[in-house]
Amino acid sequence: MMEVNNRVDAIVKKIYLGQLKEYEATKRLKPEERKMLREWVEEYNSVYSNPFYVYGDDGRLLDYITAYRRCVKEHKRTLRKELKEYELSIPDLTDKEREDLHDWVSAGNSVYENPYYVATEGGYPVDYIEALRTMEEEWEIYRKSMPDTAGEIPF
């Protein structure tokens, strides 16, 4: 029985790798997309399926790369909308904070996350500007307590 399963696995993998070769010949793929797609296929999945369960307008399941690109596009759209709403909620946002915030969001992050792991007492991450301001306050306290420390904030 094990031998039969191994042969079936080999046949399925050969079919999916053949699909991959044909697919790669017809699509312009970025290197990271090519790598993700290959990993997907090597796990015994068809290039014409996707783990995101994204369907086209016609109701059919989209292929892996089309679904991935659609998800990325939607994620970026959501982040931009979130950024606009967030900026309106903070009237005292400085130009430097705004620039840092835009860089953070451009890198694919939410305004409601922060790179410093600053969190509430309940363990939830605080938003980016609150974390940034907290870190600046902490740095200022540290700098004042250490007379030798001068210069800009090291983060």
Can you characterise this structure?
The chain has helices at residues 2-26, 31-42, 64-89, 95-106, 128-145. It is mainly alpha-helical and 155 residues long. It folds into two domains: 2-72, no CATH class; 90-145, no CATH class. Helix 1 runs antiparallel to helix 2 (31-42) and helix 3 (64-89) runs antiparallel to helix 4 (95-106). The longest helix is centred in the middle third of the chain and has 26 residues, at 64-89. The mean pLDDT is 92.
Give the helices and strands, then pairings:
Elements: H1 2-26, H2 31-42, H3 64-89, H4 95-106, H5 128-145
Helix pairs in contact: 1-2, 3-4
- Largest pleated sheet: none
The best one-word shape is: elongated
| First and last CA, distance | 59 Å
The low-confidence runs, each spanning 5 or more residues with pLDDT under 50, are none
Number of strands: 0
State mean pLDDT (0 to 100 scale). Answer: 92
Element pattern in H and E: HHHHH
Number of domains: 2
Q: What percentage of the residues does DSSP assign to strands (E)?
A: under 5%
Alpha-beta content class: mainly alpha
Rg, please? 24 Å
Helical amount among residues, as a percent range?
55-70%
In DSSP terms (H or I, runs of 4 or more residues), the helix count works out at 5
